[in-house]
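Researcher: Batch entry, complex prediction.
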Amino acid sequence: MIFVTEPSTKPWTMQQIADAAGVSVTTVSHTMSGKRPVNPQTALRIKRLIDEFGYVPDAGARRLQSGRSRMIGLAVPDISNWYFGRIARGAEEMADELDFGLIVCSTFNSDPRREKRYFNMLRTRMIDGLVYTAGREMNEMNELEKVALSSPVVLADEGINRLSSIPWVTSENYEGGRLLGAHVRALGHTKAVIIGGFAGLNSTVERVAGIRQSFPNALVLNGDFEMQAGYDLVGDLLANDVRFTALFGGNDLMAIGAIKRLHEEGLRVPEDVTVVGFDDVEIASVITPPLTTVRQDVVSIGRNSARLLIEGLEAGTFEDTASVVLPVELVVRGTSGPVAAPPGAV
Amino acid sequence: MIFVTEPSTKPWTMQQIADAAGVSVTTVSHTMSGKRPVNPQTALRIKRLIDEFGYVPDAGARRLQSGRSRMIGLAVPDISNWYFGRIARGAEEMADELDFGLIVCSTFNSDPRREKRYFNMLRTRMIDGLVYTAGREMNEMNELEKVALSSPVVLADEGINRLSSIPWVTSENYEGGRLLGAHVRALGHTKAVIIGGFAGLNSTVERVAGIRQSFPNALVLNGDFEMQAGYDLVGDLLANDVRFTALFGGNDLMAIGAIKRLHEEGLRVPEDVTVVGFDDVEIASVITPPLTTVRQDVVSIGRNSARLLIEGLEAGTFEDTASVVLPVELVVRGTSGPVAAPPGAV
DNA sequence: GTGTAGGCGCAAAGCGTTTTGCAAATCGCG
DNA sequence: CGCGATTTGCAAAACGCTTTGCGCCTACAC
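Model: Structure tokens for the complex:
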């Protein structure tokens, strides 16, 4: 039976569905949730009506009553960044698969005001849990730790051991560094510099440690993961007459920036300097020469973070949650080559 | 060992604040909203308590009662894409400035199921309005149009004239195309091909039209805005012996892919072929030679979309809302050069 | 002292769900 | 038929907030 469709834009309420079906809201609710058996005939009638009306339950009311929103948040330093975009993509995929919604928000590089906003989303119960991605440093940990006491939080892209209560997802950063170091070392290089990421990040520390397995005394500079940093820091190195035949970028972008500067200064890659990155961004294979790097599955970081969070949410605890470490893979391309013959040889 | 759900972690309710202050919830509510005068002394006491307790009102309950959530949605085809990441960034900035929250969601390239999800967010009243960014084509317009009847929607990055009810924000796509065409034409080129974006997008149509101002008969191929498309389509062109000395990329990525293929096929840029792009991505200035392109302010597209939406929301209508067209700028770099001397000359 | 006004606070009515108790109807089986 | 054991459905109580209708109390003018 068709209802008189008023030209109103107001959404239907469950009560209206119930009235139309000649039952009570209880029955409608149970038909939708399946928490109690409903007469198949009645159920069918109700479902038809729901479809016909295009009824969708009010999210706020639902949350208010049930206490859960089936929404999780993702806090990243900057959503316009390639890296965090991938994480967001992965988290969203997984959330979707598990029938959760995802709210993505930028902390604008750990702007404390913004950060508070996210934590507040937890407090306002707008979201049931949070995937947190570290920006500059992990010094916000105190705040995070406090939040994690009362609300489920998963850390993406940064491992921390001292906090047993917060599960995390990260790549094999140490192993990636080790692979790069070994590769470059095998090419005969002995003088290397490292342009690492933020010193306050665990991932940076681990990558550097991995590289140093092969280059114990490599000079370490720190950049902000942007192309410009690689460009500028190479300028500093050259201006100070630092000698090196190999350069490790904390990520691909800094490596690419470094290559640009090297070219401008008349140095050839890889003939004069071997350069390697980390991440394997799309563009890495397109620049000339294509970049040797370590591939990490960034989307997976997002996927697994969301998965851990939602699983913990549904279990009601993170007690049985094991943190995840994802494998990496060395990708050798054109920017790494054997160390140059000593000057004088052709 | 810390548990996720501890009894003491329950958020405070307004009632508890009221009890502690010795007043009724009404007074607390009015203190917070300022909708009715409250005795300054009482107000101060209440505010202190709120701070001390760290009280934050429940978002769901608030929405349920007031009817609005102060949240807007942003639907993009793929958040991990550079372009949409920028839009998201801009939208988020603006939303934040106007004290709104932003929920970013990917439609996974117009997956109808996903799309429905967003529209449903409107229906569940989780968000007050939506910024919609078109993916492949504007064929979803029917659905969109329907949604826009009852809920505020702003279209980012695509202009549509036939729908006066939906405001939009876009760059001067025609002008950008015109600038590129004129620039390349002035270099003496006469044989050009265009590797445009999706044929179903207004932006593509306009850019092509702008270019054709100078190259009325230019061949047009369509790609998906990814590097690979530029790479593949150039392969097709060469395999079919199509002659051209200039190539227009629908965006920078396709232009870069095209350049890669041209290089591989032994053609020099710009000596043999002039290539230009659209967008001015960061990487455009880093590849060799650096890419000639048109710069558009993608972040601004996001910012203005959010602004229009929120303003309309607060005004209660889009009647007075004027769509926005953002200026573009020609950036001449190294991939465009004078047409080659006829074969035989050095 | 009376009348008028306005500042301030309270109780209570929702907002649209989910989730009890309860009760009526139905059924199985001796 | 009788008597538990199911089903099936309803009314009503939350959930935490905003908002409205009232009433009290203090001022101030006459």
